[in-house]
Design a protein that fits this description.
about 230 residues, Neutral Protease, domain 2, five-stranded mixed sheet, two-stranded antiparallel ribbon, 9 helices, about 50% helix, about 15% strand, globular, binds zinc ion
Length: about 230
Amino acid sequence: MERLSRTLQTTLFSLLGSCFTPVWAGAEHCSDVPVQVHSAHPVEMEDLCQGAASALRFLEAYGVKPIRIIDIDIVDSVSEHYGNKALGSYDVDKGRILLMSMQEMTDTRAVSTLYGQAFDRLHYRSVVAHEVAHALFHQNSPKARLTNAAQEYLAYVTQLAVLPAERRQLIIEHAGVSAWESGDSISEVYMAMAPEQFAVKSYLHFSGMTDPAAFVRVLLNVKWFYVYVP
Ligand SMILES: [Zn+2]
């Protein structure tokens, strides 16, 4: 009986609690990855969960693993990022991903092309993967607030890595740049001016390294605004 009344109490409190927190109608969990999605409207979970799972798989190979659950808030719009139209963003203070739904992006024509290709589900999943990489970076880096260039490097590498190889190849050809070279500085300034080229330079650099896991450790511990390429 005591257990029953406690259960009733808990139910009552959570019902009451939900009355005072009207922002999100509910949270849905991905079945096989530690990701929960909060949305005021019903949302297609498959692309979100698949996109997140692909990022987790990719980054786990370099020792970057989730420490706690990753929260994704589905929003109607995302504010601009470095003057570029953004599809998603990571809220450092709240530790949450803000992302438009695939439906919303299509309906509002928030984006029609990405990297010179028609925007589709594969791109959407890669955008989810990009934001999940930011979340994992924040969970694993002691200096995550200061190091946007390091984070964006890893987020863009993840975004391109999870795409099918033939898609990625077209993106690399479209960007027309080569990998970051020894002595370069990977900077936010470059990223703000040329995000597509920043993504491709980072992917080519990362995939050409003999010990990428060591470089990921460098990224996670960078204390500056830029990353110097050794
Ligand atoms: Zn980013």
